[in-house]
Amino acid sequence: MLVSAEKRALHRKKNGKVIGLYTVGCTRKNCKACTGADEVGENRWLNNLDQCIQISKIEPANLASNVQVELMLTVRSLPKAPAETYFCVFENIQTTPVIFIDNSTIPPTLKCKTPLEVYIQSGGSLEVKFSLLSNETNMEFVSSKFFFYDCSAFKDCTSCVSSNFACDWCIYENKCTGNSQQCKLEGVVGGQGNSLTNATKFGPDNCPRLAKRDAEILLPVNTRRAIEVVAQNLPVLEAGHPAYECVLDEEVVKAEVMDDTIRCTPNEYSYAEFILDKPILLKVRWNNDFMIDNPYNVTVTLYKCEVNRTTCGKCLLTDSKYDCGWCEKSSCRFRDHCTSATEFLSGNICPDPRITSFSPLKGPIEGGTRLIIKGKDLGLSFNDTQSITVADVECVPEEEGYIPSEQLQCTLSNTEASKSGKVKVTISKGETYMATSETNYAFVIPAVNKISPDLGPMSGGTNVVLEGQHLDAGSTVNVTIADHQCLNIERKDNGLIHCTTSPVRNLTTGGVLLMINNGEYNSHVIFKYKDDPIITGIIPDKSIASGGTYIKVNGLNLYVANNKMLTMTIDEEVFYGDCMNATMDSMTCKVPDIFSKFDPGDSDFMLVPSYGFLLDGVETYQSLQSLEKFQDFKYYVNPVYKGLANNVYKRDDVEYLTILGENLNLASNKDDVKVKIGREKCDVTYLGNIQLTCIPPEKQPLSLDGSDSSAEVMVYHGNLNFSVGSLKYYKPAWTLPPEVLISIVAVVIIIIIVLILGCYIYRYKIDAEISVYLNELN
To answer: Which band of pLDDT confidence, cut at 50, 70 and 90, is reported for residue 732?
Structure first.
């Protein structure tokens, strides 16, 4: 036997002829996926999909988990082989050998044993993958589903007899079993999947159970009431069996059975949660712990009238089925809980409507303002609103914004002049009541006095701020600038209006038109559309990964845009850097920090996939890569400053301070770096790749804490900062400060002068004494 050169066929010689067996797709693990299955061959080759191996029957189709039997399998197109070739695999449970193969039948049959016992964790049944394995290939070549079940896991009659397994429900023993012969016959309900049962009634319709009901069972808390439900197939209690009981949220009461009705003894129920209602599943039991099935989930809904019904209006809006009303003008209660029937209000209107707030607080005299009025007991329906006036001006009610009892909405009419007054609401339904606001509403004349900035590019996108009087008036606002709509209008709490200019086709200058509801107001302020900014170049086109360095942007009209930012986009994440000091032809931008996305690979830099500028609404420079004259922007590895070359500074010997490091000037120059010694700066004179030099101040700088011993040296490079050590100025031991030397010289001179004067005086006295002596001799 030989393999073809292209490895797509096996060649063998038979009866003097060479036969090719194609191997196309032989790595496929099932028949339908085998691409060469339509080519006829020998030795277990199939010539159409209908001949694929298939488990067509398993007897029994499911099995109790604690029973071991021999499975009978019918397998189509099973390759002929001894029984010991095959194994039955119950996935994740056990593998058992095939003990018999009958090839005389078509299709052939085989037998294998099931596991001795299977553990079912929950649910009453376990679906497993059942496969046949060949020890020739050590592969599972065909599979099907198989179910193990545990009747005892079904805890109620309905689920027990509704299963497809051989399970029956024993009513008087209160259990699901696969061997109901041990149960009382008249109490056996046969399962739908059990063909061997001796039961006389079958299926869930014969289970003892609570009947389906359409009406709710409503029960107010702390109210003594009986509960009645209809049941089916209730077992007759035998002597010694405890009576029926009702269980509701752990409260147990006795129950009476009359024909098909179960009546739970009257009782008071409650619940701790502060919620409107709480549905609780009703349970009926007999013989202490035997439960009657509740397949339709019959529940009892406990409820509290007072929850979230703090006003009369909210109380009267409660569904009538609860029988709640406003009691004694103070609280919402169940009818039977109100001590006086005359103090129980359950009608159509509340007697004390109140206005708690309204908005807006002012509007234009031209009207059209939509007023929202909030309060309590403002009618139970929209039609209860008879009239609304504001400062004696009509406000037409609108159903759109109406919220029963809580909110009214109306549109104001116009008035001739500015004025203010109360909001008044009249509610009427049989009886009439009025609510008056505590605060006044004001009719005003808005005005715009200032716009900033007052110029922007033709492409629009300039965020402007309008200042003036009463700009917060009314319910709607619109702004046009130079006859063009201002977009994204937003009113702030400080009374300002923010909006964004629209693009224009031509250079234009114009005023601001403010429209608030029905009022239109022209202003004297002017806005100018200017030519769009133009960018001609950036220097440098590189930075450090942590950013913080600055680039100079050259161009035209750069001052025109109000919002100016440098953007870097990496992996769909955008990083922003502010631009500043814009003039007609230049501006400065701070390079953003992209260190979190920095990945230079084996290099010391990475190219930014996309970078550009936000200049209000100008789109031309949002991606500079699309413009030929701009180069890719590079981010280099961060610099590292390691320390001082010498931490003692001799002013007389060395004029410069040297700081050592790595990668210092890959993307920066000396202007990007600042050095401080304590509280003083050290002027940077040189930035190389591995060192920086700067000129320290002449005198020892004070440290940050004010001492003059030694000062910390800090390097600030973009967004990075490094502490590189402390610097102390060198002082020789014999050297005295100049002021001390001057003092000493002055003292010496004074002493000499004093000595000379003393000698002179002494000589003068001697001469005088000699003269007197000579005169006396004469």
So the answer is: low
Q: What is the DSSP code (8-state) at residue 116?
A: S
Q: Residue 251's CB: how many other CB atoms inside 10 A? A: 13
Please name which of 454, 464, 465, 448 lies closest in space to residue 521, comparing C-alpha atoms. Answer: 448
Could you tell me if 282 and 301 are in contact, meaning their C-beta atoms sit under 8 angstroms apart?
A: no
Rounded CA separation 499/298 (Å): 59
- Mean pLDDT within 261-287: 95
Which of 181, 183, 148, 143 is closest to 163 using CA atoms?
148
749 pLDDT tier (thresholds 50, 70, 90): confident
pLDDT in tens, 530-563: 999 999 999 999 999 999 999 999 999 999 999 9
Mean pLDDT, to the nearest integer, of 307-320? 92
pLDDT at 87 over 50: yes
CB-facing half-sphere around the CA of 278: CA atoms within 13 A: 15
Query: What is the average per-residue pLDDT within 212-236?
Result: 94
Q: What is the pLDDT of residue 20?
A: 56
Identify the bridge partners of residue 428 per DSSP, sorted by sequence position: 432
Structure-block tokens of residue 259? 């024909």
Of the candidates 375, 371, 377, the residue with the CA atom closest to the CA atom of residue 431: 377
Report the 3 state secondary structure along 540-551: CCEEECCCCCEE
Report residue 15's pLDDT band, with 50, 70 and 90 as the boundaries. Answer: low
Q: What is the C-alpha separation between 592 and 566, in angstroms, rounded?
A: 8
Neighbours of 343 (CB within 10 A): 14
Q: Is the peptide bond before 737 cis (omega within 30 degrees of 0)?
A: no
Q: How far apart are CA 295 and CA 290, in angstroms?
A: 15
Length of the chain: 778
Burial of residue 151 (CB within 10 Å: 0-12, 13-18, 19+) is buried
Pairing, β 691-695 against β 188-190: unpaired
- Report d(CA 547, CA 565) in Å as an integer: 14
For 311-369, where are the E strands, in sequence order? 324-327, 331-334, 344-345, 354-359, 362-364
Q: Distance between CA 271 and CA 251 in Å, rounded?
A: 11
